[in-house]
Amino acid sequence: MRGFYSKLDSSSVSTVVPLNLAVETEKAQALLQTFSTASLLASGGLGAFCFLVDPFLALPFIQEHLWLRAVLDNAVHGIIGLWSWAIVIGLKKKSDFYEVVLAGFLASIIDLDHFYMAGSWSLTKAVSLPRRPPLHCSSLIPVLSFSLRLIMWFCRLKDSWCSLPWMLFISLSSHHIRDGVRRGLWLWPFGNTAPISYWLYLSVTATLPHLCSVLMYLTGTRDMISSKHGIAIDV
Ligand SMILES: [Zn+2]
After folding, report:
1. In angstroms, what CA-CA distances link 154 with 8, 144, 157, 160, 223?
2. How remote is the CA of residue 191 from the centroid of ligand 1, in Å?
3. Residue 1's pLDDT band (cuts 50, 70, 90)
4. I need a surface site. Which of 17, 147, 198, 212 has the fewest CB within 10 A?
């Protein structure tokens, strides 16, 4: 049968046998996509970007200007966040661009907790806190992501929102790993790890999108992403 087309929903899955094949095919393709040449090149590019941008940020004229240093450092967090999410979802349609911008925004905005903790918009105070601000606690990442998933489930939000907890996960994780080169990870209530080695930071940053993709596949999130616009196949 050519041109078979169906929107996925619970009733059609149970009654249309070929659709099971369609779902499995789509799941396999979604997983394979994360290890495609384009995807691997994109993650290699992400690692290379980190490798090149950090010496640039260390240049004296940037280090001497506190605000410039903070803005550029925050922008790099944002770029890593949006780049990572772009690898996870692939850029196939217009709404994907909105998603990656949101991921970059999330990866950047958490640094505002420095100002919250300082109780001031003074950058000098924000970067000289006696302890780390709350959104830099890495133990919170699974808690926040899972809480968001529960909220979405309780509010019965549409499947088009299903990837939001994973977007939050990758945005926060990429930010924490980068900060971890200087200060380690804060794993409350266990304390802080030693600073992350630079090469470990590059490796984890480049592989995190693929890990996220596999976890999304294992938890079924990729099925929902794939099925939210229906599946067109030839059988
Ligand atoms: Zn930070």
Report:
1. 22, 15, 8, 15, 20
2. 17
3. very low
4. 17
**CB 198 within 8 Å of CB 181:** yes
166 C-alpha to ligand 1 centroid (Å)? 19
Number of alpha carbons in the 13 Å side-chain half-sphere of residue 61: 1
Give the per-residue pLDDT at 35.
76
63 CA to centre of ligand 1 in angstroms: 17
Q: What is the number of domains present in the chain?
A: 1
- Other Cβ atoms within 10 Å of 228 Cβ, number: 15
- Pick the closest to residue 9 from 164, 162, 231, 186 (CA basis): 231
Contact 139, 193 (CB under 8 A): no
Instruction: Annotate 120-185 with DSSP letters as a single string.
Output: SS-HHHHTS-SS--GGGBTTHHHHHHHHHHHHHHHTT--GGGTTHHHHHHHHHHHHHHHHHHHH--
Q: Categorize the per-residue pLDDT at 154 as very low, low, confident or very high, splitting at 50, 70 and 90.
A: confident
- Residue 129's domain comprises 4-233
Least Cα distance to 110 among 45, 37, 170 occurs for 170
Residue written as tokens 């939050």?
A: 168
> For residue 226, what are the CA distances in angstroms to 25, 30, 222, 229, 232?
11, 8, 6, 7, 11
Say how many C-beta atoms besides its own lie within 10 A of residue 79's C-beta. 18
Which single residue is written with the structure tokens 């105070």?
Answer: 125
Spatial separation of the C-alpha atoms in residues 108 and 79, rounded to whole Å:
9
Residue 230 CA, ligand 1 centroid: distance in Å: 39
